[in-house]
Design a protein that fits this description.
Oligomer: single chain
Shape: globular
Strand order of the largest sheet: 10-9-11-12-23-22-20
């Protein structure tokens, strides 16, 4: 019979052997358990579908400097794990490699790195190496990060970029800044490289609307990464170009001519989709002076079931503006709540446009409602809070307005953005039913099921308000209009906030707060004390 010591050694050897075997198997198999609420670390269905449909090889090269300090080392590990999952889902059609640019340098590059020069101002610089020139040529740029070396804070040049290649085309992520959006970015670029045609998103211009070159530069840059964003002029045309897949109508100030309204209507009747961001007033952000707007699109939208309000929505749950105030001899910027920029804690409905989104701002907006017509469905996408009300004209939009003496009648929530989809009737159905139509035939009802969104303001898309939540909303709207809903849920993962329930009592909130701060340390201390007492008790027993 074996001794207890021999049995213990045998058990230890078996455990070590099992661990070695698991490590060997782990080199060939990859897995991950995701316990997050939104499955942030699980490959989305949209990514799997994209990779399963790959017909030609896609190569991903990740340029990451070795031995990066936290938190960048965590970024590198996440990128490697994500690429492993993408490769597995693609069944080998996507391949990747990790490269440290420093390891690719030649002896000449290393000599170049050591040689420094001074410019006419005495500043030290050096010539770029051949590797740095090559990476700059494809769009991967180094970043300066701070590291502690030899007990000193130093600045180090590092690379954290990705290059995706398909046949002769390339796309680049210059710097991986936020791992939470990396899966969406990679999947979007793979789709962009492998699709046969780039969808065209038209933006109606004219009518004193914000232009892509001025107030909508952020919109053009954001949507231009995935789609072809094209200005569309409706003047003098009977139909919108057939290659335009969806339309955005953003903030027109002057009325559309009947022929232009007809072109918009027939675009929707052709089965294509559109989003209208329409103002009752447009506001000068320097003076906050409102200017009345008369776009004339209300009757056409009413045919589809939409109804536009004329009063501005104000909300206690609002964003803040920085207002200059005099304090003695100084001007100080003071943040003040501004109720005409409602801040939405969450958006409404189970639409893929709004799922997971919070923190969206809708400045200078009016009420939008919808009564769906036969064969169509309406969904409210955004509502103000219960602490909102309607401001009648004339509007006092001064940020310095004194609200202490005013008690508005709270009437919220109010719907601010609505979507309608399904079979729609044309605003020009009577003309289509005429016995002898002339010119181009008019469609009396929609072909297929177009999608239409109407919002009670356009400022949410201006450069001044296009923060990250509004960007996500804009991208979701574009994807929804272009029938690409699979990408929507992936983009908003990790954006949703999970605050404590508001109805918790003060005592419960304090218990949670102090429990998080002191509960775990006290529990560990108690556990250690119990173990110490048991050990002392065993010692006392042995001595006896």
């Amino acid at each position: 019979m074996k001794s207890p010591a021999a049995n213990a050694n045998l058990l230890l050897a078996a455990l070590v052997g099992c661990l070695v075997l698991l490590n060997i198997l782990g080199l060939r198999a990859f897995g991950r358990f995701d316990a997050t609420r939104d499955d942030v670390y699980t490959l989305s269905q949209a990514s799997r579908q994209t990779l399963e449909k790959l017909e030609d090889p896609v190569t991903v090269t990740a340029y990451f400097t070795d031995d990066l300090p936290p938190p960048y080392a965590g970024h590198a590990r996440y990128v490697r794990d994500l690429l492993e999952e993408l490769r597995s889902a693609s069944r080998g059609r996507l391949s990747f490699e990790f490269l440290d640019p420093m390891s690719q340098e030649t002896s000449e590059d290393q000599e170049t790195r050591r040689e420094t020069k001074r410019d006419i101002f005495g500043r030290v610089f050096r010539e770029p190496t051949s590797v740095e020139k090559e990476l700059a040529g494809v769009g991967v740029q180094p970043v300066e990060i701070r590291v502690i070396e030899d007990d000193q804070m130093q600045t180090k040049r590092a690379y954290m970029g990705i290059v995706i290649q398909h046949q002769e085309k390339k796309e680049v992520i210059p710097v991986v800044q936020d791992p939470r959006t990396l899966e969406y970015d990679l999947t979007t670029l793979v789709r962009k490289l492998t699709r046969p045609k780039t969808p065209v998103l038209g933006v109606v211009r004219g009518h004193d609307a914000p232009s892509l070159d001025e107030q909508l530069r952020g919109l053009q840059a954001l949507l231009g990464q995935t789609y072809e964003v094209r200005p569309v002029d409706l003047a003098g045309v009977e139909r919108v170009d057939a290659d335009v897949d969806a339309l955005l109508v953003i903030g027109p100030r002057t009325a559309f001519a009947p022929a232009e309204v007809k072109a918009l209507d027939q675009f929707i009747m052709s089965g294509r989709s559109a989003a209208f961001f329409l103002d009752a007033v447009q506001v000068d952000l320097k003076t906050f002076a409102p200017t009345e707007v008369a776009h004339g699109l209300g009757p056409m939208l009413a045919t589809y079931g939409f109804h536009l309000g004329t009063q501005l929505v104000a909300d206690v749950e609002s964003a803040q503006l920085s207002v200059q105030e005099r304090r003695g001899f100084m001007m100080v910027a003071m943040p003040v709540p501004y109720p005409f920029i409602p801040l939405l804690e969450r958006l409404e409905g189970d639409s893929p446009i709004t799922e997971g989104l919070s923190g969206v701002t809708l400045p200078f907006t009016t009420v939008v409602t919808a009564t769906p017509t036969e064969g169509a469905q309406a969904t409210v996408l955004a509502r103000s809070s219960r602490k909102s009300w309607l401001e009648p004209s004339p509007f006092n939009l001064d940020p310095r307005r004194d609200w202490r003496a005013q008690t508005p009648s709270l009437s919220g929530p109010h719907s601010l953005m609505v979507q309608v989809s399904g079979r729609l009737k044309s605003h020009f159905a009577a003309e289509a039913q005429a016995s002898a139509p002339t010119g181009t035939p008019v469609l009396a009802e929609s072909q297929g099921e177009p999608r239409v969104i109407v919002a009670g303001g356009s400022a949410a898309l201006w450069d001044d308000f296009l923060g990250r939540p509004n960007q996500a909303l804009l991208l979701n709207i574009a994807d929804w209009l272009l029938l690409d809903p699979a990408m929507l849920k992936m983009r908003t993962r990790g954006l949703a906030q999970v605050p404590l329930q508001q109805e918790l009592s003060a005592s419960t909130r304090n218990a949670v707060k102090f429990g998080n701060a002191f509960g775990i340390p006290l529990a560990l201390a108690a556990f250690g004390l119990v173990r110490w007492r048991r050990r002392e008790a065993r010692r006392a027993t042995v001595c006896v």
